[in-house]
Amino acid sequence: MSSRILLYVWTISLGGLVIGIDSGIVASVLSQKNFKTFMYPPGTPNTTSLISAIVSMAAVGGAIGNLISGLFLEKLGRKWTLFISTFFTIVGSVLQTAANGVALMIVGRTIAGIALGMLRPTVPVYIAEIAPATQRGRLIGIFGLLISFGYVVAGWVGYSCSFAAGDVTWRLALALQIPAAAILMGLSVFLPESPRWLAQKERYEDMDMSMRNIYSNEDEDFFIRSRFEICEQIRLEAVQRTNRTFGYALIELFNKRNIKRTAVAIMVLQLGCLSGTLVIQQYQSILYASLGFTGQKALLITACYSFMGFTARVGCLALAIALSLLMALSRFYGDGHNEQGAEAGVAFVFIFSALYALFFNSTLHTIPPEYFTVHLRGYGLAVGDFFQGVSNIWLSFVTPHAFDAIQWRYYSVFIACLVALGVFYMVALKETNQMTLESTAALFGDETVHGAKDMMEHTEEAERGIEMGDKDTTK
Questions:
Q1: In a domain, 475, yes or no
Q2: CA distance 287 to 285
Q3: Given its phi and psi angles, is residue 178 left (phi above 0), alpha (psi -120 to 50 degrees) or beta?
Q4: Could you give the number of structural domains in the chain?
Q5: Domain contains 186
Q6: How far lies 245's CA from each of 75, 130, 241, 252, in Å?
Q7: 135 part of a folded domain
Q8: Continuous segment of H or E residues that includes residue 377
Q9: Which of 113, 197, 287, 375 has the fewest CB atoms below 10 angstroms from its CB?
Q10: Tell me, what CATH number does 351's domain have?
């Protein structure tokens, strides 16, 4: 694999850093005493609802951004969707930093939410379409790694800013969302467009230039074979379509041919919400307060928590099956009535984060883009992320009130979700390791340019023959 591909992938993956910082900074800011005093001073009614609105409107914006990202990815391409989403991330961050009250803070969070909602499906789609098949999972995993690193940056920025005086404690923290987005926006101009998107738009000369730019160390035979496979697979898919509009594409995601793909994308991405990880990240300050930790001590715990994010290099199917059920075992928290119980509660939060990061942080972003055909890839991830955004919305509204009413028992909801998702993954997921994006269509019964469907059927027959032979040998 060339250093040029790595350079492009790391640049695109800066979107993960942007997402991680923006998503993580809210947990630190909500804990800042000066922020609370400025936004909802003592005596302000419905403070729980105001906290919920600040968090949940970002989720509302995210869901909107998720849904429209498919249209942008299809019409403008991967490169310019990345540029536009980072631009509006900066706009939202500036409004948050300059906020003179809750209203402007909510507007800023909403705009940033829309931008990040567009960014979240764009990055894995972009990387999947330029990465070599043998390295695709690892390269998409960089996106998850930088999301985790973004949380690290946000956590320690929030803790460091707590030592400042006045409104600087939270305004500076919010302003530090801007640099990563600005760097990515500037660098995105120099990125090559996805060859697969260019082929779909029948811009073959641009496709050739893009491929030779990305795969500059490959020989001529590689270009001929790859170009033929991409173009012919897109042609085969185009024959089966009669309409290319946005509305029809959304309908197509739920027809008999694609419903399995769409269901898997939705359910895989739901893990990001229904595992409880976003609730913990966004409402850590409330959780730690219920356990008896407040002020700078809570911020320090939040910063340390962010270090638990790291990634693994294992097969997607094995990861998703193994830890859905196992992660549920880390859901036992103290009730805050004694110091030992509170410390145990924090410890299990850290254990949960470590297990989630190890087995799921990168896997969630790797699976969905591999399952869709090129014309539905952007739409498919947009819909999957949209449903995740919807879940994030209701969780953002419900969580503060649930903490007030039932405290730690609220996490029993996520235990049940993890068990159900684990069963679904065991039944529905298909292994795509080492397969090109064009050949994965055969896993869903589609015709492929190199006869992968026939090869799969032949392999299944051979496996049945081996099993029969094993039985005869046993006899």
A1: no
A2: 5
A3: alpha
A4: 1
A5: yes
A6: 10, 25, 11, 10
A7: yes
A8: helix 374-406
A9: 375
A10: 1.20.1250.20
